[in-house]
Specification:
The chain is built from 3 helices and 3 strands; from the N terminus they run αβαββα.
């Protein structure tokens, strides 16, 4: 978690999945949203609220950046050739 995430998003509660038309979702979502800047709807994704559209977009971006997987580690260099000592070039992707 980054400092920006803590400032912009804070605690991100998960609201469990509710079937379409389930009347218990509305009061649960409303109560949860009153005390949080964002909520995560299971099987749907984040819902973010902010005073301005730009602030909501920034919060959504921070949430997505924090949730993104880290970049894959670089593969190790190949060992040197046993006779020549030269190393093969690694393939770039």
């Amino acid at each position: 978690m980054t400092a920006y995430y803590a400032m912009r998003v804070g605690n991100l509660p998960l609201i469990p999945y509710h079937a379409p038309g389930d009347t218990t979702l509305e009061p649960l979502a409303e109560t949860t949203a009153r005390t949080h800047r964002a909520v995560l709807l299971a099987n749907h994704g984040p819902v973010v609220a902010a005073p301005t559209l730009d602030q909501a977009a920034d919060t959504t971006e921070e949430l997505e950046e924090t949730a993104a997987p880290p970049p894959a580690p670089r593969p190790p260099d190949p060992p040197p050739h046993p006779r020549t000592g030269c190393r093969a070039r690694a393939h770039s992707s």
